[in-house]
Amino acid sequence: DKRAALEKERENRIAEAEVENLTGSRHQEGLKLRQKLMERHLQIKEISSDGHCMYRAMEDQLTERGTTLSLKELRAQTAQYMRSHADDFLPFLTDPNSGD
């Protein structure tokens, strides 16, 4: 029946994608990166994409080095630094109305 054929085709596509995931260049690159990190006693850490991910990554690294700052403190310090060094960041900012 048509429904069974569509399901079989879907399962085949999933199986092909799984093989590609294991043999594809992205996977191979990930393996090489993990090896290089392992040699340096480093690791990849998963940080949830929750709108605070950059600050959560910073928080993680600071905590490992004995510094504890809240997300609010990290954001405030980052904003203050950017305001104090505006010329360094202006090339990366655009006007939302003109795109300039």
From TrEMBL:
What keywords are annotated for this sequence in UniProt? Hydrolase, Protease, Thiol protease, Ubl conjugation pathway
What EC number is given for this enzyme? 3.4.19.12
What reaction is this protein's catalytic activity?
Thiol-dependent hydrolysis of ester, thioester, amide, peptide and isopeptide bonds formed by the C-terminal Gly of ubiquitin (a 76-residue protein attached to proteins as an intracellular targeting signal)
Q: What class of enzyme is it?
A: hydrolase
Source organism superkingdom = Eukaryota
Report any one BP term from Gene Ontology.
Answer: proteolysis
GO MF, one term, reads: cysteine-type deubiquitinase activity
The OTU domain is annotated at: 42-100
Question: What is the protein's given name?
Answer: ubiquitinyl hydrolase 1
Q: Which organism is it from?
A: Cirrhinus mrigala (Mrigala)
